[in-house]
Amino acid sequence: MPTEPNLRPRIKLLTWLFIVGLVLSGATAIPLTSELDWLVHFTGAKQLVETRASTAAPAWAIWLVKVQSTLRETSIQHPILFYGTDWLAFGHFVIAIVFVGALRDPVRNRWLFDFGLIACVLVIPYALIFGAVREIPFWWRLIDCSFGVIGFVPLWFCRKWARELERLVSPAKVG
Question: Can you give the residue range of the structural domain that contains 42?
Answer without folding.
Answer: 33-86
